[in-house]
Amino acid sequence: xxxxxxxxxxxxxxxxxxxLTLAVLALLSAAALLVMLPGSGQSGSGPSSPPAAPxxxxxxxxxxxxxxxxxxxxxxxxxxxxxxGVVLEVIRGPLDTETxxxxxxxxxxxxxxxxxxxxxxxxxLPRYVAAGWFEPLERWLGPxxxxxxxxxxxxxxxxxxxxxxxxxxxxxxxxxxxxxLMERPPRDTDELxxxxxxxxxxxxxxxxxxxxxxxxxxxxxxxxxxxxxxGAHWWNGSTARTELDSPEAVAAAKWLADLLxxxxxxxxxxxxxxNDALQSFAAGDAAFLRNWPYAWREIEKGGxxxxxxxxxxxxxxxxxxxxxxxxxxxxxxxxxxxPHPEEAVAAIRxxxxxxxxxxxxxxxGYAPTWSTLYDDPELQRRAPxxxxxxxxxxxxxxxxxxxxxxxxxxxxxxxxxxxLTGQGGPGPTMAAAxxxxxxxxxxxxxxxxxxxxxxxxxxx
Length: 460
Ligand code: GLC
Hints:
With 460 residues, the protein is of the alpha+beta class. Helices cover 44% and strands 13% of the residues.
Protein backbone atom coordinates (compact mmCIF):
# COMPACT_ATOMS: atom_id res chain seq x y z
CA UNK A 1 0.00 0.00 0.00
CA UNK A 2 1.43 3.39 -0.95
CA UNK A 3 2.18 5.69 1.98
CA UNK A 4 0.27 8.97 2.01
CA UNK A 5 2.65 11.93 1.94
CA UNK A 6 2.31 13.24 5.47
CA UNK A 7 3.10 16.91 4.86
CA UNK A 8 2.11 19.61 2.40
CA UNK A 9 5.08 20.75 0.28
CA UNK A 10 5.33 23.96 2.30
CA UNK A 11 5.52 22.02 5.53
CA UNK A 12 8.04 19.73 3.95
CA UNK A 13 10.41 22.66 3.37
CA UNK A 14 9.87 23.86 6.91
CA UNK A 15 10.71 20.37 8.11
CA UNK A 16 14.04 20.24 6.31
CA UNK A 17 16.13 20.31 9.49
CA UNK A 18 14.01 17.43 10.87
CA UNK A 19 14.41 15.51 7.61
CA LEU A 20 18.17 16.00 7.81
CA THR A 21 18.14 14.76 11.39
CA LEU A 22 16.12 11.73 10.26
CA ALA A 23 18.59 11.03 7.46
CA VAL A 24 21.52 11.19 9.88
CA LEU A 25 19.63 8.95 12.31
CA ALA A 26 18.90 6.53 9.48
CA LEU A 27 22.59 6.30 8.58
CA LEU A 28 23.61 5.87 12.21
CA SER A 29 20.99 3.15 12.72
CA ALA A 30 22.10 1.32 9.63
CA ALA A 31 25.71 1.45 10.83
CA ALA A 32 24.65 0.24 14.30
CA LEU A 33 22.73 -2.67 12.79
CA LEU A 34 25.65 -3.72 10.64
CA VAL A 35 27.80 -3.88 13.76
CA MET A 36 25.16 -6.04 15.49
CA LEU A 37 24.91 -8.55 12.66
CA PRO A 38 25.92 -12.01 13.84
CA GLY A 39 29.53 -12.65 12.86
CA SER A 40 30.17 -9.10 11.65
CA GLY A 41 33.63 -7.80 12.33
CA GLN A 42 34.96 -11.27 13.10
CA SER A 43 34.27 -13.52 10.16
CA GLY A 44 34.07 -10.77 7.53
CA SER A 45 30.66 -12.06 6.49
CA GLY A 46 28.86 -8.68 6.75
CA PRO A 47 26.98 -7.13 3.85
CA SER A 48 30.17 -5.47 2.58
CA SER A 49 31.65 -8.93 1.89
CA PRO A 50 31.09 -10.53 -1.52
CA PRO A 51 27.56 -11.99 -1.86
CA ALA A 52 27.19 -15.63 -0.78
CA ALA A 53 27.66 -18.17 -3.55
CA PRO A 54 24.26 -19.12 -5.04
CA UNK A 55 24.64 -22.66 -3.80
CA UNK A 56 25.47 -21.71 -0.18
CA UNK A 57 22.90 -21.61 2.61
CA UNK A 58 20.36 -18.81 2.37
CA UNK A 59 20.71 -16.34 5.24
CA UNK A 60 17.50 -15.14 6.90
CA UNK A 61 18.11 -12.33 9.36
CA UNK A 62 15.68 -11.25 12.05
CA UNK A 63 15.95 -8.19 14.29
CA UNK A 64 14.55 -8.70 17.82
CA UNK A 65 14.74 -6.94 21.19
CA UNK A 66 17.42 -8.57 23.35
CA UNK A 67 15.16 -10.46 25.81
CA UNK A 68 13.17 -12.11 23.03
CA UNK A 69 16.32 -12.78 21.01
CA UNK A 70 17.71 -14.65 24.03
CA UNK A 71 14.42 -16.43 24.62
CA UNK A 72 14.34 -17.91 21.09
CA UNK A 73 18.02 -18.93 20.96
CA UNK A 74 17.24 -22.65 21.36
CA UNK A 75 14.33 -22.68 18.84
CA UNK A 76 16.55 -20.83 16.34
CA UNK A 77 19.24 -23.50 16.75
CA UNK A 78 16.57 -26.21 16.25
CA UNK A 79 15.37 -24.48 13.07
CA UNK A 80 18.90 -24.31 11.69
CA UNK A 81 19.60 -27.94 12.53
CA UNK A 82 16.43 -29.15 10.80
CA UNK A 83 16.34 -26.78 7.80
CA UNK A 84 19.25 -27.50 5.48
CA GLY A 85 20.03 -24.70 3.08
CA VAL A 86 18.81 -21.90 5.39
CA VAL A 87 20.64 -20.10 8.20
CA LEU A 88 18.45 -18.11 10.54
CA GLU A 89 20.48 -15.35 12.22
CA VAL A 90 19.15 -13.25 15.07
CA ILE A 91 20.28 -9.64 15.39
CA ARG A 92 20.03 -8.83 19.08
CA GLY A 93 18.62 -5.32 19.30
CA PRO A 94 18.10 -3.04 22.31
CA LEU A 95 15.53 -3.76 24.99
CA ASP A 96 13.18 -0.76 24.85
CA THR A 97 10.37 -0.77 22.31
CA GLU A 98 11.09 2.85 21.31
CA THR A 99 14.84 2.32 20.93
CA UNK A 100 14.51 -0.77 18.78
CA UNK A 101 11.78 0.88 16.72
CA UNK A 102 14.07 3.87 16.10
CA UNK A 103 16.84 1.50 15.07
CA UNK A 104 14.61 -0.46 12.69
CA UNK A 105 13.00 2.70 11.28
CA UNK A 106 16.41 4.21 10.62
CA UNK A 107 17.44 1.46 8.23
CA UNK A 108 13.96 0.97 6.74
CA UNK A 109 13.93 4.68 5.79
CA UNK A 110 17.14 4.09 3.85
CA UNK A 111 15.42 1.23 2.00
CA UNK A 112 18.24 -1.18 2.77
CA UNK A 113 17.31 -2.98 5.94
CA UNK A 114 19.95 -5.60 6.78
CA UNK A 115 17.22 -7.94 8.02
CA UNK A 116 14.45 -9.99 6.36
CA UNK A 117 12.21 -10.26 9.39
CA UNK A 118 11.40 -7.86 12.19
CA UNK A 119 9.86 -8.71 15.54
CA UNK A 120 7.17 -6.04 15.72
CA UNK A 121 5.55 -4.59 18.82
CA UNK A 122 1.78 -4.36 18.37
CA UNK A 123 1.96 -0.58 18.76
CA UNK A 124 4.22 -0.12 15.72
CA LEU A 125 2.08 -1.87 13.11
CA PRO A 126 -0.13 0.95 11.74
CA ARG A 127 2.89 3.20 11.17
CA TYR A 128 5.06 0.55 9.51
CA VAL A 129 2.20 -0.60 7.29
CA ALA A 130 1.40 3.00 6.26
CA ALA A 131 5.08 3.46 5.35
CA GLY A 132 4.89 0.41 3.07
CA TRP A 133 7.73 -1.46 4.77
CA PHE A 134 6.08 -4.88 5.08
CA GLU A 135 5.02 -7.65 2.71
CA PRO A 136 1.52 -9.12 3.35
CA LEU A 137 1.71 -12.66 4.72
CA GLU A 138 -1.63 -14.18 3.69
CA ARG A 139 -0.16 -15.36 0.38
CA TRP A 140 1.94 -17.87 2.35
CA LEU A 141 0.05 -18.33 5.59
CA GLY A 142 -3.53 -18.32 4.27
CA PRO A 143 -6.42 -15.99 5.11
CA UNK A 144 -7.48 -17.95 8.20
CA UNK A 145 -4.07 -18.24 9.84
CA UNK A 146 -5.19 -16.51 13.07
CA UNK A 147 -8.50 -18.36 13.46
CA UNK A 148 -7.16 -20.88 16.01
CA UNK A 149 -5.78 -18.17 18.32
CA UNK A 150 -7.23 -16.54 21.44
CA UNK A 151 -9.30 -13.39 20.65
CA UNK A 152 -6.73 -10.87 21.98
CA UNK A 153 -3.88 -12.55 20.11
CA UNK A 154 -5.73 -12.04 16.82
CA UNK A 155 -5.72 -8.26 17.31
CA UNK A 156 -3.09 -5.94 15.95
CA UNK A 157 -1.90 -8.19 13.10
CA UNK A 158 -4.19 -7.21 10.24
CA UNK A 159 -4.85 -3.91 8.52
CA UNK A 160 -6.50 -2.89 5.25
CA UNK A 161 -7.59 -6.50 4.65
CA UNK A 162 -4.06 -7.92 4.84
CA UNK A 163 -2.15 -9.95 7.37
CA UNK A 164 1.09 -8.12 8.21
CA UNK A 165 2.30 -9.83 11.35
CA UNK A 166 2.19 -13.31 12.90
CA UNK A 167 2.10 -13.04 16.70
CA UNK A 168 4.76 -14.83 18.72
CA UNK A 169 3.46 -13.83 22.16
CA UNK A 170 -0.01 -13.10 23.55
CA UNK A 171 1.12 -10.93 26.46
CA UNK A 172 -1.05 -8.46 28.36
CA UNK A 173 -0.44 -6.30 31.41
CA UNK A 174 -1.17 -8.18 34.68
CA UNK A 175 -1.53 -7.39 38.37
CA UNK A 176 0.86 -9.24 40.71
CA UNK A 177 -0.09 -9.66 44.39
CA UNK A 178 1.45 -11.20 47.50
CA UNK A 179 -0.30 -14.42 48.51
CA UNK A 180 1.43 -14.37 51.92
CA LEU A 181 -0.04 -10.97 52.80
CA MET A 182 -3.68 -11.27 51.69
CA GLU A 183 -6.22 -14.00 51.09
CA ARG A 184 -7.40 -12.83 47.70
CA PRO A 185 -6.41 -10.17 45.19
CA PRO A 186 -8.23 -6.81 45.19
CA ARG A 187 -11.41 -6.57 43.13
CA ASP A 188 -11.00 -2.91 42.25
CA THR A 189 -8.70 0.09 42.61
CA ASP A 190 -10.29 1.12 45.94
CA GLU A 191 -9.49 -2.27 47.44
CA LEU A 192 -5.98 -2.15 46.05
CA UNK A 193 -5.35 1.14 47.85
CA UNK A 194 -7.11 0.03 51.08
CA UNK A 195 -5.13 -3.23 51.30
CA UNK A 196 -1.90 -1.36 50.53
CA UNK A 197 -2.46 1.20 53.27
CA UNK A 198 -3.38 -1.43 55.81
CA UNK A 199 -0.25 -3.48 55.07
CA UNK A 200 1.91 -0.36 55.12
CA UNK A 201 0.42 0.76 58.43
CA UNK A 202 1.11 -2.66 59.97
CA UNK A 203 4.70 -2.52 58.72
CA UNK A 204 4.29 -5.57 56.47
CA UNK A 205 5.52 -3.77 53.35
CA UNK A 206 7.19 -0.48 52.66
CA UNK A 207 5.10 0.25 49.58
CA UNK A 208 1.67 -0.70 48.32
CA UNK A 209 1.79 -0.61 44.54
CA UNK A 210 4.73 -0.55 42.08
CA UNK A 211 4.31 0.27 38.41
CA UNK A 212 6.01 2.02 35.49
CA UNK A 213 5.96 5.82 35.74
CA UNK A 214 9.11 6.73 33.81
CA UNK A 215 8.76 9.01 30.80
CA UNK A 216 8.69 6.27 28.14
CA UNK A 217 6.27 4.09 26.26
CA UNK A 218 5.77 1.75 29.24
CA UNK A 219 3.96 4.62 31.02
CA UNK A 220 1.59 4.83 28.05
CA UNK A 221 0.81 1.11 28.57
CA UNK A 222 -0.02 1.87 32.21
CA UNK A 223 -2.22 4.77 31.07
CA UNK A 224 -4.19 2.51 28.70
CA UNK A 225 -5.10 0.31 31.66
CA UNK A 226 -5.87 3.09 34.12
CA UNK A 227 -7.97 5.01 31.59
CA UNK A 228 -9.95 1.87 30.82
CA UNK A 229 -10.30 1.16 34.53
CA UNK A 230 -11.96 4.55 35.07
CA GLY A 231 -14.29 4.27 32.08
CA ALA A 232 -12.21 6.68 29.95
CA HIS A 233 -10.83 6.19 26.43
CA TRP A 234 -7.54 7.39 25.04
CA TRP A 235 -8.72 6.81 21.48
CA ASN A 236 -12.18 7.02 19.96
CA GLY A 237 -12.14 4.70 16.94
CA SER A 238 -15.22 6.22 15.30
CA THR A 239 -13.99 9.83 15.39
CA ALA A 240 -10.28 8.89 15.12
CA ARG A 241 -9.55 11.39 17.89
CA THR A 242 -8.18 11.25 21.39
CA GLU A 243 -10.41 11.91 24.42
CA LEU A 244 -7.83 12.59 27.08
CA ASP A 245 -9.56 15.55 28.73
CA SER A 246 -12.83 13.78 29.62
CA PRO A 247 -13.76 13.86 33.34
CA GLU A 248 -13.13 10.10 33.49
CA ALA A 249 -9.64 10.50 32.01
CA VAL A 250 -8.81 13.24 34.53
CA ALA A 251 -10.06 10.96 37.35
CA ALA A 252 -7.77 8.20 36.04
CA ALA A 253 -4.74 10.51 36.03
CA LYS A 254 -5.66 11.76 39.52
CA TRP A 255 -5.69 8.19 40.82
CA LEU A 256 -2.08 7.76 39.70
CA ALA A 257 -1.01 11.14 41.12
CA ASP A 258 -2.68 10.30 44.45
CA LEU A 259 -0.80 6.99 44.68
CA LEU A 260 2.44 8.97 44.92
CA UNK A 261 0.97 11.79 46.97
CA UNK A 262 -0.39 9.37 49.59
CA UNK A 263 2.74 7.22 49.69
CA UNK A 264 0.99 4.08 48.34
CA UNK A 265 3.60 4.16 45.56
CA UNK A 266 7.10 5.57 46.08
CA UNK A 267 8.08 8.86 44.41
CA UNK A 268 10.71 6.74 42.64
CA UNK A 269 7.93 5.14 40.55
CA UNK A 270 8.25 8.25 38.37
CA UNK A 271 11.59 6.86 37.20
CA UNK A 272 10.65 3.16 37.10
CA UNK A 273 10.53 1.04 33.95
CA UNK A 274 9.46 -2.64 34.03
CA ASN A 275 12.68 -3.99 35.48
CA ASP A 276 13.00 -1.39 38.27
CA ALA A 277 9.49 -2.13 39.50
CA LEU A 278 10.09 -5.89 39.19
CA GLN A 279 13.35 -5.83 41.17
CA SER A 280 11.81 -3.87 44.02
CA PHE A 281 8.74 -6.16 44.17
CA ALA A 282 10.94 -9.28 43.98
CA ALA A 283 12.96 -7.95 46.92
CA GLY A 284 9.76 -7.90 49.02
CA ASP A 285 9.26 -4.12 49.07
CA ALA A 286 5.61 -4.01 48.01
CA ALA A 287 2.19 -5.68 48.06
CA PHE A 288 1.33 -5.20 44.35
CA LEU A 289 3.10 -4.89 41.01
CA ARG A 290 1.95 -4.07 37.50
CA ASN A 291 4.00 -5.95 34.90
CA TRP A 292 3.99 -8.27 31.88
CA PRO A 293 3.77 -12.09 32.17
CA TYR A 294 7.54 -12.75 31.99
CA ALA A 295 7.93 -11.10 35.42
CA TRP A 296 6.47 -14.14 37.21
CA ARG A 297 9.14 -16.49 35.84
CA GLU A 298 11.82 -13.94 36.74
CA ILE A 299 10.57 -13.83 40.33
CA GLU A 300 10.42 -17.62 40.57
CA LYS A 301 13.83 -18.11 38.92
CA GLY A 302 15.42 -15.40 41.06
CA GLY A 303 14.78 -17.28 44.30
CA UNK A 304 14.36 -14.06 46.33
CA UNK A 305 12.21 -13.51 49.42
CA UNK A 306 8.85 -13.53 47.56
CA UNK A 307 9.46 -16.67 45.49
CA UNK A 308 6.39 -18.92 45.83
CA UNK A 309 4.39 -16.08 47.41
CA UNK A 310 3.14 -14.31 44.30
CA UNK A 311 -0.27 -14.55 42.66
CA UNK A 312 -1.26 -13.00 39.35
CA UNK A 313 -4.63 -11.64 38.30
CA UNK A 314 -6.22 -9.58 35.53
CA UNK A 315 -5.83 -5.80 35.88
CA UNK A 316 -8.53 -4.25 38.09
CA UNK A 317 -10.62 -1.14 37.38
CA UNK A 318 -12.37 1.40 39.61
CA UNK A 319 -15.45 0.11 41.50
CA UNK A 320 -18.17 -0.80 39.01
CA UNK A 321 -15.82 -0.48 36.01
CA UNK A 322 -14.34 -3.27 33.93
CA UNK A 323 -10.54 -3.49 34.24
CA UNK A 324 -8.30 -4.97 31.59
CA UNK A 325 -4.63 -5.34 30.67
CA UNK A 326 -2.90 -3.57 27.80
CA UNK A 327 -2.27 -5.85 24.84
CA UNK A 328 1.52 -6.06 24.52
CA UNK A 329 2.10 -8.71 21.86
CA UNK A 330 5.18 -9.06 19.65
CA UNK A 331 4.99 -10.74 16.24
CA UNK A 332 7.04 -11.37 13.12
CA UNK A 333 6.69 -9.32 9.93
CA UNK A 334 8.34 -9.83 6.57
CA UNK A 335 10.28 -6.86 5.20
CA UNK A 336 9.28 -5.84 1.69
CA UNK A 337 12.09 -6.61 -0.73
CA UNK A 338 13.55 -9.47 1.31
CA PRO A 339 15.49 -11.57 -1.20
CA HIS A 340 14.40 -14.79 0.56
CA PRO A 341 10.69 -14.52 1.38
CA GLU A 342 9.97 -18.28 1.22
CA GLU A 343 12.75 -19.10 3.67
CA ALA A 344 11.83 -16.14 5.89
CA VAL A 345 8.20 -17.32 6.05
CA ALA A 346 9.40 -20.82 6.98
CA ALA A 347 11.16 -19.20 9.95
CA ILE A 348 7.96 -17.28 10.86
CA ARG A 349 5.97 -20.53 10.77
CA UNK A 350 8.39 -22.25 13.10
CA UNK A 351 8.99 -19.42 15.57
CA UNK A 352 5.30 -18.53 15.94
CA UNK A 353 4.13 -22.16 15.91
CA UNK A 354 2.82 -24.13 18.91
CA UNK A 355 6.03 -26.08 19.60
CA UNK A 356 8.08 -22.93 20.17
CA UNK A 357 5.30 -21.14 22.05
CA UNK A 358 5.01 -24.12 24.39
CA UNK A 359 8.73 -23.85 25.16
CA UNK A 360 8.47 -20.08 25.65
CA UNK A 361 5.52 -20.47 28.04
CA UNK A 362 7.34 -23.04 30.20
CA UNK A 363 10.78 -21.46 30.23
CA UNK A 364 10.04 -17.73 30.02
CA GLY A 365 6.40 -17.30 31.02
CA TYR A 366 5.31 -15.69 27.73
CA ALA A 367 1.60 -16.09 26.98
CA PRO A 368 0.88 -18.36 23.98
CA THR A 369 -1.41 -17.23 21.17
CA TRP A 370 -2.76 -20.68 20.15
CA SER A 371 -5.97 -21.77 21.90
CA THR A 372 -4.98 -25.47 21.94
CA LEU A 373 -2.03 -24.68 24.19
CA TYR A 374 -4.35 -23.22 26.81
CA ASP A 375 -6.28 -26.52 26.84
CA ASP A 376 -3.15 -28.66 27.28
CA PRO A 377 -3.20 -30.12 30.86
CA GLU A 378 0.55 -30.66 31.01
CA LEU A 379 1.23 -27.09 29.95
CA GLN A 380 -1.34 -25.84 32.47
CA ARG A 381 0.69 -27.59 35.16
CA ARG A 382 4.05 -26.33 33.97
CA ALA A 383 2.92 -22.76 33.18
CA PRO A 384 0.60 -21.87 36.09
CA UNK A 385 -0.28 -18.40 34.75
CA UNK A 386 -2.04 -19.87 31.74
CA UNK A 387 -5.62 -19.53 33.05
CA UNK A 388 -5.13 -15.86 34.01
CA UNK A 389 -3.36 -15.14 30.72
CA UNK A 390 -6.25 -16.65 28.80
CA UNK A 391 -8.77 -14.62 30.79
CA UNK A 392 -6.80 -11.42 30.12
CA UNK A 393 -6.73 -12.21 26.39
CA UNK A 394 -10.54 -12.17 26.17
CA UNK A 395 -10.78 -8.34 26.56
CA UNK A 396 -7.35 -6.78 26.24
CA UNK A 397 -6.95 -3.03 25.83
CA UNK A 398 -5.43 -1.72 22.62
CA UNK A 399 -3.24 1.33 22.29
CA UNK A 400 -4.48 3.88 19.71
CA UNK A 401 -4.22 1.98 16.39
CA UNK A 402 -2.87 4.89 14.39
CA UNK A 403 0.39 5.59 12.52
CA UNK A 404 0.73 8.59 14.84
CA UNK A 405 0.92 6.36 17.93
CA UNK A 406 4.61 7.01 18.67
CA UNK A 407 4.02 10.77 18.83
CA UNK A 408 0.80 10.41 20.85
CA UNK A 409 2.51 8.09 23.32
CA UNK A 410 5.51 10.35 23.58
CA UNK A 411 3.51 13.42 24.52
CA UNK A 412 1.19 11.57 26.91
CA UNK A 413 4.12 9.96 28.73
CA UNK A 414 5.82 13.37 28.96
CA UNK A 415 2.71 15.03 30.38
CA UNK A 416 1.83 12.28 32.85
CA UNK A 417 5.41 11.91 34.04
CA UNK A 418 5.46 15.72 34.56
CA UNK A 419 2.35 15.37 36.71
CA LEU A 420 3.98 12.58 38.75
CA THR A 421 7.00 14.78 39.41
CA GLY A 422 4.85 17.67 40.62
CA GLN A 423 4.75 19.82 37.49
CA GLY A 424 0.96 20.10 37.22
CA GLY A 425 -2.34 18.72 38.45
CA PRO A 426 -4.37 16.02 36.66
CA GLY A 427 -6.80 18.47 35.02
CA PRO A 428 -4.22 20.73 33.31
CA THR A 429 -2.03 17.69 32.52
CA MET A 430 -4.75 15.87 30.63
CA ALA A 431 -5.99 19.08 28.96
CA ALA A 432 -2.45 19.71 27.66
CA ALA A 433 -2.13 16.09 26.51
CA UNK A 434 -5.44 16.38 24.62
CA UNK A 435 -4.48 19.70 23.00
CA UNK A 436 -1.09 18.40 21.88
CA UNK A 437 -2.60 15.15 20.60
CA UNK A 438 -5.05 17.04 18.41
CA UNK A 439 -2.16 19.13 17.07
CA UNK A 440 -0.24 15.96 16.17
CA UNK A 441 -3.27 14.45 14.43
CA UNK A 442 -3.94 17.70 12.54
CA UNK A 443 -0.32 18.04 11.43
CA UNK A 444 -0.43 14.54 9.96
CA UNK A 445 -3.75 15.07 8.15
CA UNK A 446 -3.70 14.73 4.38
CA UNK A 447 -4.46 17.68 2.04
CA UNK A 448 -8.15 16.72 1.82
CA UNK A 449 -8.44 16.90 5.58
CA UNK A 450 -8.83 13.20 6.11
CA UNK A 451 -6.01 11.65 7.99
CA UNK A 452 -3.85 8.61 7.54
CA UNK A 453 -2.92 9.09 11.19
CA UNK A 454 -6.54 8.78 12.21
CA UNK A 455 -7.42 5.78 10.11
CA UNK A 456 -8.39 2.97 12.44
CA UNK A 457 -6.80 -0.42 12.21
CA UNK A 458 -8.95 -3.20 10.73
CA UNK A 459 -8.16 -6.39 12.49
CA UNK A 460 -8.85 -9.71 10.96
C1 GLC B 1 6.36 -4.79 26.47
C2 GLC B 1 5.13 -4.91 25.60
C3 GLC B 1 5.14 -3.83 24.55
C4 GLC B 1 5.28 -2.48 25.21
C5 GLC B 1 6.49 -2.42 26.10
C6 GLC B 1 6.53 -1.13 26.89
O1 GLC B 1 7.50 -5.09 25.75
O2 GLC B 1 5.08 -6.16 24.98
O3 GLC B 1 3.96 -3.89 23.79
O4 GLC B 1 5.36 -1.49 24.22
O5 GLC B 1 6.47 -3.49 27.01
O6 GLC B 1 7.68 -1.05 27.67
